């Protein structure tokens, strides 16, 4: 039997991931077996276990392929150098638009918000938490840059603002997953939501207050991951307990 080329191996892997996405979207993550995923792809049980250790491994691979690729985040960092607040608004708008423009992204969001039950271990939830951490830290860095450029209040509580923006964006994505199927394209309201998200950051309720407990101290795990070094060498972010600093 001839050895498969690297291209053929990659094609097989991608076909299995396509099948897994469909099966998870139809039945949830917990219920279907990997054998069913292999059958959907027209392959054997051995084929899928030749590429993935378990269901969590499959889910992680789907995350790598679909969940906001690294190149999007790097582009976000580069564009944020001159207009960080505008870039943050565009980021929110882009995330919401991708929900409509990319069918696999739409299915993935439906899985996360509507069909992602526990699967007997915490691997899947931990991966989602790590992805959310990384995104929030990039958003937080843009807020820090916006403060430095005078686009956001100097006394903005970055901990509260990061949590608030993350909660808003997650809530919006979940709400989009609950829309009727007839709503299959974004309208001008997408831009309005992006503007509303950044307007939130000017709220008096998100300002620092003397003696308040930093949110980062209450939720240390949320900020356990640091983003890679920013493209703009004039901005360096280091995170310590209870605060964030630019150097």
Structure, explained:
With 247 residues, the protein is mostly helical. It has two domains: 6-58, Homeodomain-like (Arc Repressor Mutant, subunit A, Orthogonal Bundle), CATH 1.10.10.60; 67-246, Orthogonal Bundle (Tetracycline Repressor, domain 2). Helices cover 60% and strands 3% of the residues. The protein contains eleven helices and two strands. It has helices at 6-27, 34-40, 45-49, 55-66, 70-79, 84-101, 103-115, 123-148, 158-177, 189-199, 215-218, and strands at residues 237-240, 243-246. A two-stranded antiparallel ribbon has the order 1-2. β1 (237-240) and β2 form a beta hairpin. α6 runs antiparallel to α8 and α6 packs antiparallel against α10 (189-199). The model is unreliable at 225-247 (pLDDT under 50).
Distance between the termini: 59 Å
Give the second-level CATH assignment, the architecture of the largest domain. Answer: Orthogonal Bundle
Largest sheet: 2 strands, antiparallel
- Biggest sheet, strands in spatial order? 1-2
Number of domains: 2
Extended strand count: 2
User: Helix/strand-derived class?
Assistant: mainly alpha
Strand content: under 5%
Question: Percent helix among the residues?
Answer: 55-70%
What is the alpha-carbon Rg in Å?
Answer: 20 Å
Count of discrete alpha- or pi-helical segments spanning 4 or more residues: 11
Q: So, the CATH homologous superfamily of the largest domain?
A: Tetracycline Repressor, domain 2
**Global geometry:** elongated
Instruction: Find the CATH topology of the largest domain.
Output: Tetracycline Repressor, domain 2
The sequence of SSEs as H and E is HHHHHHHHHHHEE
Q: Please, what is the average pLDDT?
A: 79
Return the CATH class of the largest domain. Answer: Mainly Alpha
Q: Which residue ranges are poorly predicted, with pLDDT under 50 across at least 5 consecutive positions?
A: 225-247
């Amino acid at each position: 039997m001839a050895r498969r080329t690297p291209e053929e191996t990659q094609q097989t892997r991608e076909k299995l991931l396509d099948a897994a996405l469909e099966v998870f979207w139809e039945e949830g993550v917990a219920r279907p077996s990997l054998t069913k995923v292999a059958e959907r792809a027209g392959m054997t049980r051995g084929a899928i276990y030749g590429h993935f250790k378990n269901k969590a491994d499959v889910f992680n691979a789907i995350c790598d392929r679909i969940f906001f690729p690294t190149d999007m985040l790097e582009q976000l960092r580069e564009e944020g150098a001159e207009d960080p607040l505008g870039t943050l608004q565009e980021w929110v708008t882009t995330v919401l638009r991708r929900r409509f423009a990319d069918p696999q992204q739409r299915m993935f969001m439906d899985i996360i918000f509507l069909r992602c039950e526990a699967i007997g271990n915490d691997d899947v939830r931990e991966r989602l938490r790590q992805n959310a951490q990384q995104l929030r830290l990039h958003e937080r860095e843009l807020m820090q840059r916006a403060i430095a450029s005078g686009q956001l209040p100097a006394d903005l509580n970055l901990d509260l603002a990061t949590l608030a923006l993350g909660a808003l964006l997650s809530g919006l994505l979940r709400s989009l997953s609950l829309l009727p199927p007839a709503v299959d394209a974004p309208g001008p309201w997408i831009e309005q939501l992006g503007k509303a998200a950044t307007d939130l950051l000017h709220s008096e309720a998100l300002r620092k207050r003397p003696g308040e407990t930093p949110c980062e101290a209450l939720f240390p795990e949320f900020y356990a991951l640091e983003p890679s070094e920013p493209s703009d060498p004039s901005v360096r972010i280091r995170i310590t307990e209870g605060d964030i600093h630019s150097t």
